[in-house]
Design brief:
Number of domains of chain A: 2
Largest sheet of chain B: 2 strands, antiparallel
Radius of gyration of chain A: 23 Å
Distance between the termini of chain A: 59 Å
CATH superfamily of the largest domain in chain A: Periplasmic binding protein-like II
Largest interface: A-B, 36 and 31 residues
CATH topology of the largest domain in chain B: MetI-like fold
Structural class of chain A: alpha/beta
Distance between the termini of chain B: 42 Å
Number of helices of chain A: 17
Structural class of chain B: mainly alpha
Strand order of the largest sheet of chain A: 2-1-3-12-6
Order of helices and strands of chain B: HEEHHHHHHHHHHHHH
Radius of gyration of chain B: 25 Å
CATH superfamily of the largest domain in chain B: MetI-like
Oligomer: heterodimer
Helix content of chain A: 40-55%
Order of helices and strands of chain A: HEHEHEHHEEEEHHHEEHHEHEEHHHHHHE
Largest sheet of chain A: 5 strands, mixed
Strand order of the largest sheet of chain B: 1-2
């Protein structure tokens, strides 16, 4: 028993004996988060609420929650999810963890999010979590290299492919085709519905990869892999990093965190090199559509003894401007995001001061189908199309296999699948 | 006369009590093992068996619904095929490789053989999780010490290597180099137990080294070979760490449902259905035990003659 507790009981005892003023019971909330989010939680201070924070490594989180619920031991009241799918995974009959925040968090908070930024938390009309950060894809380019090549930034996928064909002759590439999320982005940009929730029908997904909106981008990827303008190694492969350092990657489609967490530390890009541009659209589309690669969320436990306090904590950590200004990834809450972006705009490491503005504009093109699913998209893409691209086989030809895998997974996890 | 009879009865009584005492001692020596077997074998298996008939969400009897769920999962047949292919590859390689190496080691000087056995054993001391990382580098033509061979085959990326030789073969290599060393040491022991008289007699009769190894030594250690086969089979069916950790190589190597044990893990810890997980685990145990029993009885493993 620690001193704090002894003191607390002593105070309670004194209060009871004296029979005077009621001593407010201090509430303790159990919080589980990864090592990055723990310092954020530690800054929370509210009278009468104490946080019992535990660091849990991201890959173990779901397993530990399942075990805690099964063993009926300490279940966390508030958690940080590094994967948007956990919300859906943990709100089923089998593992019913998630607290419905619809009545606990006001509409104004939701409205303060960037367009579509909170869509992974809105499932079947219910608010089940709050998004911490956005991870939209857009173009990251090597400004001096583009100047040297005398090339313009592509605004359409047609231009993107043509640029790829030109630079491939010099052994350059415009990113990788052998990684799940970038492939999802190529398909999503074409309007492909590979796991799209159907409006107004709960637990229903549209999975149809036979449409032109899927085959057109897949065929583009195939042509670009064939001429070498998309690599057969993933962006985390040492060979890819070497190409980047050798100035062989004029640009690539990457998520918002790619500059700060990959290009800067892993590829070691020097000051003044890296710029951002909007994601391309197809010439016949009005505006781009862009996928996300990650973006964490905060959620609460449905059996918590203190739902009000849980909601307050979640709202604070996801939307407190002062706190989010120093976050390591781009906040989903718009006002926080703008405050956070000031540092990006002022950072001389970027090629120009427009980087953040582009990132913010790109968020509004987020694919609304990027949501929380009980389908392992990453696994399905890895095992089919990413594998095909990595060994030089056709992505287009692997689409039926991907559709079968996604459909089977969706049905297994209780979705109705429509074409 | 009476005293003679008495002494005989006494002697019988003494022998009987000595026998009982010996049996009693046997059980006392067996006891620690039996306790551990119960704690980590029998009780968990029985618990899982019971759990597999229960709906672990509302805790009601569920009949065989958990089993139905497992059989209806489209990934089960795929994982089963993966695992069985791996097991066939690996058990074959282990039996052939370990037996060949052991018989050859038995033919050379004791000191060199001892050094080599130690060397073979060393990879087994590395935990399999670290070993997977090591293998990811060994198999990547960009950084592998075997670059030359890989480039000869035209393999440029990790995907080229891994997908050309296939996942079961990759895991077979990983598991063989971890596990073989331990068995080579065991076989060294088995081979040194063969009486020198038998070997000398065969040599006098004109047997050459190959004949000595295959006709004389191998038949004398076949029980160890069977034991290795059974244990390798049981371990192989449970493959988990290798496919799970391949995801560290990112990209197309993420395989959360490659093996049956990964599926059981997913059921329990991703999906939250401990009943379905228990059902799959029970099936896995039942399968391994049945195969072991068939092998044991078909080969008359315990017949001492």
């Amino acid at each position: 028993m620690n001193i704090k507790k002894v003191l607390k009981y002593a105070t309670l005892a004194v209060g009871t004996v004296a029979g005077t003023a009621v001593v407010a019971e201090e509430i303790t909330l159990n919080v589980w988060a990864d090592s990055v989010r723990v310092p954020m939680f530690e800054k929370y201070s509210k009278d009468g609420v104490e946080l019992n924070i535990t660091t849990i490594s991201a890959p173990e989180l779901v397993a530990k929650i399942q075990l805690a619920m099964q063993a009926k031991t300490e279940v966390p009241d508030v958690v940080f999810f590094n994967n948007v799918n956990y919300t859906a995974q943990l709100s089923t009959r089998r593992s019913n963890y998630i607290l419905d925040l619809s009545d606990l968090i006001s509409q104004e908070v939701e409205d303060a999010y960037s367009t579509n930024a909170n869509s992974p938390c809105e499932i079947d009309g219910k608010l089940l979590c709050l998004r911490n950060d956005v991870a939209q894809f857009h173009i990251w380019y090597n400004a001096p290299l583009m100047d040297e090549l005398g090339e313009e930034l592509p605004t359409t996928w047609e231009e993107f492919e043509a640029l790829g064909a030109r630079v491939a002759e010099q052994g350059m590439a415009l990113g990788s085709a052998a990684q799940d999320a970038p492939l999802m982005n190529f398909l999503s940009a074409g309007g492909c519905q590979f796991a799209a929730p159907v409006e107004g029908q709960s637990n229903t997904l549209r999975i149809d990869l036979s449409t032109e909106s899927c085959t057109r981008p897949a065929a583009m990827v195939d042509r670009m892999v064939a001429n070498g303008s998309l690599t057969k190694v993933g962006p985390f492969d040492p060979a890819f990093a070497q190409m980047y350092r050798d100035n062989k990657i004029p640009l690539l489609l990457g998520p918002s965190w790619f500059a700060e967490h990959v290009i800067r530390p892993s590829y070691g890009a020097p000051e003044g090199q890296t710029g951002a541009a909007l994601p391309p659209r197809w010439a016949d589309q009005d505006q781009p559509i862009t996928w996300h690669w990650g973006g964490g969320t905060y959620a609460g436990w449905r059996k918590t003894a203190h739902p009000e306090e849980v909601a307050d904590l979640i709202e604070w950590i996801a939307t407190d401007i002062e706190l989010q200004t120093t976050a390591v990834t781009m906040p989903a809450h718009e006002a926080s995001s703008v405050a956070w972006g000031a540092a990006i705009s002022a950072d001389p490491w970027y090629a120009n001061d427009q980087t953040y503005n582009v990132m913010l504009e790109a968020v509004q093109y987020s694919d609304t189908n990027y949501t929380s699913l009980r389908v392992n998209l990453a696994g399905a893409f890895s095992g089919t199309v990413a594998k095909a691209a990595s060994i030089g086989e056709s992505v287009l030809a692997a689409l039926p296999a991907l559709e079968a895998e996604l459909t089977n997974q969706a049905k297994l996890n209780g979705y109705t699948v429509v074409k | 006369m009476t005293s003679l009879l008495m002494s005989q009865i006494d002697r019988e009584r003494a022998e009987k009590s000595a026998r009982l005492r010996n049996i009693g001692y046997s059980y006392i020596f067996l006891l620690p093992y039996l306790i551990l077997l119960a704690m980590f074998g029998i009780i968990p298996i029985s618990y899982a068996f019971g759990l597999s008939f229960i709906d672990t969400i509302d805790y009601v009897f569920y009949g065989v619904k958990n089993y139905d769920f497992v059989f209806a999962d489209f990934r089960i047949m795929r994982s089963l095929t993966n695992v069985l292919t791996f097991v066939v590859f690996w058990v074959t390689l282990t039996v052939l490789g370990v037996v060949t190496l052991s018989l050859m080691l038995d033919n050379i000087g004791k000191r060199i053989a001892g050094t080599l056995r130690t060397l073979y054993f060393l990879p087994g001391a590395v935990s399999s999780s670290a070993l997977v990382v090591l293998w990811i580098f060994v198999l990547d033509p960009a950084v592998s010490p075997f670059q030359g061979i890989m480039h000869f085959f035209g393999w440029e990326t990790l995907a080229d290597t891994v997908f050309t030789i296939g996942m079961p073969a990759v895991f077979m290599l990983m598991a063989f180099f971890t596990g073989a060393g331990g068995w080579i040491v065991v076989f060294g022991g088995a081979l040194s137990g063969i009486s020198t008289e038998v070997v000398e007699a065969a040599r006098v009769d004109g047997a050459n080294r190959a004949q000595l190894a295959l006709r004389i030594k191998l038949p004398l250690i076949w029980r160890s070979v069977i034991l290795m086969g059974i244990l390798s089979f049981a371990t192989g069916m449970q493959i988990f760490v290798e496919p799970q950790l391949m995801s560290m190589a990112r990209g197309p190597f993420t395989m959360p449902d490659w093996s049956l044990n990964q599926m059981a893990y997913q059921y329990a810890f991703q999906m939250g259905d401990f009943g379905a997980s228990a059902a799959l685990s029970t099936l896995l145990v039942a399968f391994s035990i049945s195969i072991a029993l068939v092998v044991v009885f078909k080969t008359k493993f315990y017949n001492i003659s």
